[in-house]
Write a structure and sequence with these properties.
two-stranded antiparallel sheet
Length: 399
Amino acid sequence: MEALTVLTSIAIVLLAGLVVTIISKRLQISNVLLLIALGIGLKTIAYNDAAVFDFSPTFLLSIAVLALVMITFDGSSRFKFKDIDQFSGDAMRIFLWFLLLNIILLTIFTSALIFPSFSMNFVLISLLFAVLMAATDPGAIFSMMRGKITKVIEVLEIESIINTPIIVIVPFLIINFLSASKSGQIVQSVMDQLLPFLQQIIVGVGAGVVVGVIIFKAMKKAYHEQLSPLAIIVAALLSYILAENLGGSGVLSVATMGLLFGNTFIKSKVRLQEFSSIFSTALEILVFVLIGFLVQVDLSWSFFFRSLALFGIMLIARWLAIAIALRKGKYKLREKVFMTLNMPKGIAVAAVVFSLSVMNIPELAVIIDLVLMFMIYSLILATIVDRHSKKLIKIKLED
């Protein structure tokens, strides 16, 4: 009976999410914001003083990771190496400057506005939040920009692919530092984490290449209507699992494999990409509805104004990052404004939030609430910018 109850809840959540997604398409806005609102609303439904919809933390985390794997693969598989060579330099500079300025500005102001007293633990948690907010999620950008072509959107898409593995890895390194700081061994912990960080990158790329070469070599000559799409899902999961078990980054492994898939001849590749996109969309709907269940948001005016002030600080950091990274004048002012305001947080941030929520660290609760507010703010802002994109950038549609 318990399994039937969970399956029924999943079916209802997916159905409601599908309806909300259809409505968002009609309104020409991102569905992510409405899906989170739907989850918050469904969470409040109760019968006999018990929540009607109840999911275990393990289930939530598993769904989030699966969605992250498939959406990362779907997004990275649509890039060509020639496009990455053309725009990767700009995207990398934007991300690195944005990360650096976030670390400086957002860490300082988060510690001052959110935490009542100074301590190394609070500084580390503020640093975790600052790093996480440097994310620009592939799923959110792809869903809002799909079908549109311009150098600005190409840069934003590549930036999202570049920052996703780092954003998923670094917060957990900071958690390790946080644990070490409580025992007074933080300096030693920093040194101990440098080698594992490099290992995650090297092993992640290597695992993605190995799995991709083996799977895609077999798929070059043969296409099976039922088995080939399944092979794509299995390959993405194997790539993630192999990298994680070897101490590497699963997300980076999947992104590497996706790049190989997008730049390798495979029979009926377009059909496989369509299937991958459909499956990713279903998972995305489920994850963003479920994140509304997870977070208990403090809706006090004090929290609202403090979170809004911090979001303003992040916008300043974003503008400075883009102004410095693109200072050579290749981009117009309105294009830089577009890139500044278009930084939605999505599936990568959601997956990290699910992971943080199952950790027994009381100080993380307020940061999780703050992350959700930033997701909402960034999605609202990106939706408005996307609706008026023709005033800021020149767009042509894909053939």
